[in-house]
Amino acid sequence: MTVTIRDVARASGVHVSTVSRTFSAPHMVNAATRTRVLTVAEELGYRPNRAARALTTGRTHNLGLIVADIANPFFPPLIKAAHAAARQRDYHLFVADTDEEPAAEEELVQAFSKQVDGVVLCSPRSSNKALERLAERVPFVVVNRRLRGAATVLMDVGHGARLAVEHLAGLGHRRVALVSGPAGSWTSAEIRTAAEQVPGIELVVIGPNAPTERGGFAAADRVRDCAVTGVLAYNDLVAIGLIEGLADRGLSVPEDVSVVGIDDIVSGRLNRPKLTTVAMPTAAAGRLAVDLLIQEVTATTSLETRLVIRDSTAPPR
Amino acid sequence: MTVTIRDVARASGVHVSTVSRTFSAPHMVNAATRTRVLTVAEELGYRPNRAARALTTGRTHNLGLIVADIANPFFPPLIKAAHAAARQRDYHLFVADTDEEPAAEEELVQAFSKQVDGVVLCSPRSSNKALERLAERVPFVVVNRRLRGAATVLMDVGHGARLAVEHLAGLGHRRVALVSGPAGSWTSAEIRTAAEQVPGIELVVIGPNAPTERGGFAAADRVRDCAVTGVLAYNDLVAIGLIEGLADRGLSVPEDVSVVGIDDIVSGRLNRPKLTTVAMPTAAAGRLAVDLLIQEVTATTSLETRLVIRDSTAPPR
DNA sequence: TTCAAGACTGCAAACAGTTGCACTAAACCT
DNA sequence: AGGTTTAGTGCAACTGTTTGCAGTCTTGAA
């Protein structure tokens, strides 16, 4: 049924090992035989079986990518870039979704372990111990989480948050709210410590909140009650939900309160008002993560973020 | 290094075949030995090697999913649902992105073929012939494309388009534009033929257009020039771009012109005005596609769509 | 008591490749 | 001419698991 290396060997009058080598070590075989084997292989429609190859070499040429929620608009650009980078080096990409369930991370890594050469873990929520245990099973790189000993790619959201709050300060705001993210999120912690350090700004922290539009919507009451003129939201979805919630309460953005988001998802660009936000280099992170994985270098890199000023911020009344 | 079935066999004093059976055919092994093997396996941290298993059984327990553009907001919910369905049956999912390049479809399927038990192809653009050729290599199901002989899941966008145009008619519109999608798209053709059949409506077709916000933006001039009061756009991104383009030209939605999109992506819900749109059951399609694949049934199913009326449509001036 | 049936388990041959080693023949060097 | 290197190829063992077949040991029935 399926054509194997032996069929090609027979049809081209050489031993299987020669066929094997024309594919995995072409320089070791005579040019003439090589082309003969290749044409025969082409005719027969032979493709090396990667699973079988993996068995002896131990390398699968597959990578795993684990995110909390594929449908969260933050991730697709990252996934896309990771896929492109993998493809470029002839790797295939498993994609998995933990559904925001930390336990699923561990299980997925385990399940992947024999089938991939490495996995990239985005914003993992598992404990350090659990991650270290996993590191013994399969190489991985973590994105947006600090982890000793593992390859890491960080997006410098702290810097972005500082820029955002400074932007608000520059517009004349003095009292701003931080509508924070879920408890235990590295990103959320980074944002907070950075925001707190901006001089001349009185920061009130509201949270933790779900990292969703709904979470932002639900925080609207508390934002209104704490008498701020500016808000930094955990991410764009939260910002959009918050803007909607504020509108329901008669407050308009940016006239009554300025809101800045984080991530720069497309919905933010399409939203009215267009969101001022901290652009996260998600594509670069995805690409870099798989490159690190493939090259087996364990470095920790921090990617630049930048502030994109659009229409949701203005001087206070 | 890595613990194999032999290690478990040795440690629990049975033959490897018994260990194998405790995992793949538990009912064939004595309860006592089974538990012994399982505890030993647990202690040693043994996980069956799927690649090796695939070699003898021919089943990899992997599936492939190919879409045109992972970052297109239409797809992530589909991918997520497909992943969940796969996971539920202990399958892993390769995800790939053709970058809107039809040639990539064929190449990706080829590359996947030995490594998956089947692939789901979303809105493929390859020729029928090419697809039939691929069908010989690996089972697949196509989404949003009609293909004889292959398992198919369709979203009944024609019906949705008809509802949309009827909705406009009901509001009193008489002349509406169809801002169509890319040439050769099955979906676009479906929309068109359905929209043309609504009585009492004079339809002017504008296109083909890129299926993006930019495409919609670029169509704004032609929409203005053709003196319509209502528009059906190929998808929500086009609709949003169009609304923006119209605003630039001093036309507001829905006061001056009503716009209805298709897909019901989140950006449409978050957009101002909130988009009236045809909701596509993407999650259901993803789930169904992998179920069909796993169960190896080749049926063709058509999923219901429905009209969601929000704020971008109103009676004409 | 004897025999057949059934429940477990072991044996060994696959599955589709890779790779260290051995071998041959040609090319190169004095 | 003789020896040494080198290029190319074949041989066979190995990767981790499954599975048809055969063997052993119980168990139940006649």
From TrEMBL, chains A, B:
Transmembrane segments: none annotated. Residues 3-57 form the HTH lacI-type domain. InterPro entries: HTH_LacI, LacI/GalR-like_sensor, Lambda_DNA-bd_dom_sf, Peripla_BP_I. Keywords: DNA-binding, Transcription, Transcription regulation. This is Transcriptional regulator, LacI family. Gene3D superfamilies: 3.40.50.2300, lambda repressor-like DNA-binding domains (1.10.260.40). PROSITE patterns: HTH_LACI_2 (PS50932). The keyword DNA-binding applies.
